[in-house]
From TrEMBL:
The keyword Nuclease does not apply. One of its GO terms (cellular component) is synaptic vesicle membrane. It is a multi-pass membrane protein. It is found in: Membrane. Signal peptide: none annotated. This is Multiple C2 domains, transmembrane 2a. SMART domains: C2. Residues 8-138, 180-292, 334-447 form the C2 domain. GO terms for biological process: regulation of neurotransmitter secretion. Belongs to the MCTP family. Pfam families: C2, PRT_C.
Amino acid sequence: TDTTSEKRPASPLPPFFTVLHFPSVNFRRHRFQSRRRSSPGCLSPSPPVKLPGGFLVSGTSDPFVKFKLDGKNIYKSKVVNKNLNPIWNESFSFPVRDLDQTLHLKVYDRDLRSNDFMGSSSFPLYKLDLDRIIPMTLPLEDPNSEESDMGVIILEACLSIREEPAKRNVWLLKMHLFSRKSRVNFCLWLNQVWTGIYTVILVEGQNMPDCGQGDVYVRFRVGEQRVRSKNLCIKANPQWRESFEFNQFQDVQENLAVEVCCKRGRKSEECWGVLDIDLTRLPVNQRQLYTHELDPNKGRLVFLVTLTPCSGASISDIQSAPLDNPTTFEEMQEKYGLMKCLWDLKDVGYLQIKLIKATDLPSTDLSGKSDPFCTLELGNSKLQTHTISKTLNPEWRTALTFPIKDIHDVLVLTVYHDDGDKAPDVLGKVAIPLLTVSNGQQITRTLKNNNLSRTTKGSITLELNVLYNPVSFAVDNPKFNKKLLARNIYRVRKISMAILYTLQYIKSCFNWENTRRSITAFLIFVVAVWLWELFMLPLFLLLLIGWNYFHITPGMASYSQDLVISVFFFPSLQESEKKGLMEKIHMVQEIVLTVQNTLDEVACIGERVKNTFNWSVPFLSFLACLVLFLATAALYYIPLRYIVLVWGVNKFTKKLFNPYAIDNNEILDFLKRVPSDVQKVRVQFYI
């Protein structure tokens, strides 16, 4: 069909904002026309043949592809040696300024002295759709060749907004649109503000391949927001039990992309399946369970998605700051007051920043001026001001608000110089812990360098207001590497393994993996707690020793221990002999890092307990005093038997009421909120 007169669709985004991405310049089934005609089944070496242009080649080529846009080379593929049907398996992307341009592809045969031309093709960029992968089959042409069929190239192209091409934060690239040359585009300004939170709970995998060694993990992506789960050892039913959050932006419809990957070794990675979830039909405040099949024979993935409205983020002029309105201020105070502190424990607090001005910034242009703008980060959330051109003393006079997810977060303000298409230059940075904020007071902070190690030129003036629930505070899910945990378990003695198996057996009773076993354990627990007396403890140990005496064959203990050692240690020694020097070095590094992280965790727990009693964080120490007072009163008036009984009933019924609940330890979660000695130094350094 003739496409010369085809009406070109309007570009959905400004050309400056678009990026052409080849998700897989995966030239699968790429076919080049062989320049030699031979009969099928001929196994004898083919003699050189004469080709147009006067050069001699054999029956194969060493092809590679060059991509050109606006007369400039933008990408060159690798060379596939001696192949007329090459498979490159490459991916690349590059920024696009004008959708009316045409992308040219030229195929060459690498030679020692010169590269021989094998054909070319092209396609206009306006035929591509935004965020849609389009497969293409491009026939190669050579006007100087007598052959009509020069072969084809098969590729996929997508016009989208990506992080990879610019090698920098694409979020800053988005914000650059409305901050360009101090013109505030309020439509794009609203694109920063999120109106909801997608909460994704990764539960488990089912019927996955249970063979070989390696790790399995899951990647989630919503637009430019990306997270990755922890690594688990390959097994049939891996249990992640992790929670992730993504912001839902105004007037943006994005899907949730889920990718399950398996990693064997340092460089071998295999994709087990890719899922695409439509989030536009997700109901509000309703947990949706997804059980999706992966690639054939790769099992299923189970996860939950919940959309929760969020109205705390906003950007406005300083004269329209939300908390300056007396009615809004009273509503917020009432919302986070003591009377309603237990209504919504997930709503931690509200932060308002009045960003007034910056003074005496360093100059970056030849004219002695800069084009500054400021970004504000709180946890995983980020907002940005507009750009003010040609000044060293910008006055933004902007009010920005954040919903607080953790009262112990640190607000980070970074001042950048807008350098056009290049990466922005950092002019200075300030970090302010939320617990150190004095409401309503205008403060001026000296700017520091990018890693906050020393002061730089300039200062920033702002005013902060923090309102938060005095009872609720956010906690992090405990994270650990089960692969390292399993490796350490195999190296301990038999008694440690017996304790671990016993704890796992008790946990399986709490999780109701076997209904009959859980019911029996529940009845035994209730009867034992109700009738418990102190003399029953040595009696139980005596019965356990007698049970082992009559049911364990002499010599089996040492035999089983030797069996464990032979199974888990000897193969590893044989494998280590086959590994090279670099593999051994990496293995030693992993062990050293594991020991280092373990020592750091133990030291942090001890220092956090000490700092709780030292009133390093008065709010947390006061909260600990309140909890200890309530615990003292409860133990004084309520018998311990009843407290243990209530705790046990709660543990047994928790999985019945909420089967996808994430396990946590309240005491460790509280201690994680208390800073260690190292974190105390950092917080004081921020101040």
